[in-house]
Amino acid sequence: MTRVAAVDCGTNSIRLLISEVQADGKIRDIVRTMEIVRLGQGVDATGEFAPEALVRTRVALEGYVKQMKFEKVQHVRMVATSATRDAKNQDEFFEMTAQLLSQIESGAKAEVITGEEEALLSFKGAVADLRSERGPYCVIDLGGGSTEFVVGTIDGDILGAHSAQMGCVRLTERIMRTDPPTDSEIEIAEDYVEERMQEVEKIVPISSAKTFVGCAGTFTTLSALAQGLESYDPDAIHGSELRFDALRVLTRQLMGKPSSTRALNPVIHPGRADVIGGGSVAVEGIIKMIERNSDASSFFISEKDILDGIVAGIAADL
After folding, report:
1. What secondary structure does DSSP assign to 201-214, as a single string?
2. Mean pLDDT throughout 79-99?
3. Closest CA to 314 of 125, 148, 119
4. For residues 284 and 189, is the Cβ–Cβ distance under 8 A?
5. What would the pLDDT profile of 35-88 be if each residue is shown by its tens digit?
6. Where is the Ppx/GppA phosphatase N-terminal domain (predicted)?
7. Are 126 and 213 in contact (CB under 8 A)?
8. In degrees to the nearest 10, what's the CA dihedral of 254, 258, 263, 267?
9. pTM of this prediction?
10. Cα separation of 166 and 189, whole Å?
11. What mean pLDDT comes out for the span 220-234?
12. Tens digits of per-residue pLDDT, 200-210?
């Protein structure tokens, strides 16, 4: 048995999955955790990482390395996505990750992956527990700086993929700056999302998808809210179904609330309270795009995503 780790560092959060690859090839989760570090703070405006954002990320990664050592992890892969692709001072970030991750595996450090590779890894993880008759699938990974769309089959036959430059942090920092956002800000954000959705429609065969799968923090938090959970419960969230009509009511409510009120709900992470309004605008725009191209009326929510895809890739190479 071999223990491996995957780390995903995005615009808003850094996440860790430690898994055990058993002799028969089966994979068992050991640790799955997340911290909001807002690495992408201000990147849209300045083009580089803020010093305090790098410190927050380093502290979180140090904690993850301690967990890896405790769990006797032998192999690790860390990917960095939207914010890192855009930052001019990314070398400072890479040097920090190399210093920490080399304690687990010689030569390990964060690597920037393209939006397309991010989409493919997310797809592989997100559909792992879905039944083949529900396919083809469209997996939608809504992050802080970008949103990945990928259509494919359970066997991994990818029909189309695209990384759209929109996410909950990007929309909040660029457009929805008032707390709560004004009607004008919401309208401008909706127009921006609609432009991105038109790009998706040109590149990805949305009409080929039978089932739409939402993953990452905005979607999973919306599921927890829709179910009225008293605490964030991954088991209750994974595999849940959110109907578009009911979801629109929820997203509209979130947009109208200040972040301080959102943060009072125990299922909304304090670091997500100020950006879930932006995420809600993105979700509404995605729904409109799906309805133009499909008869679907709901999302299925997956707690599995890019981390699971990374672990599967490590396991395949053992």
Report:
1. HHHS-GGG-SEEEE
2. 86
3. 125
4. no
5. 989 888 887 778 888 899 999 999 999 999 999 999 999 999 999 876 677 788
6. 23-293
7. yes
8. 0
9. 0.85
10. 10
11. 95
12. 999 999 999 99
- What one-character DSSP code corresponds to residue 81? -
Using one digit for the tens of pLDDT, what is the confidence trace for 237-275?
A: 999 999 999 999 999 999 999 999 999 999 998 889 999
For residue 275, what are the CA distances in angstroms to 135, 171, 248, 255, 298?
31, 8, 17, 10, 23
Residue 289 clears pLDDT 80, i.e. is over it = yes
- Would you report the helix, strand and coil content of the chain in percent, each value rounded to 5? 45, 20, 30
Q: What would the DSSP string read from start to end of 103-133?
A: TTSTT--EEE--HHHHHHHHHHHHTTTS-GG
CA 90 vs CA 78, 120, 273: distances in Å: 14, 23, 27
Q: Which amino acid is at 201?
A: E
Output the six-digit token pair for 297.
């009326």
How crowded is the C-beta side of 139, counted as CA atoms within 13 Å? 34
* Residue 7: closest CA among 103, 82, 89, 75: 75
**Residue length, the chain?**
318
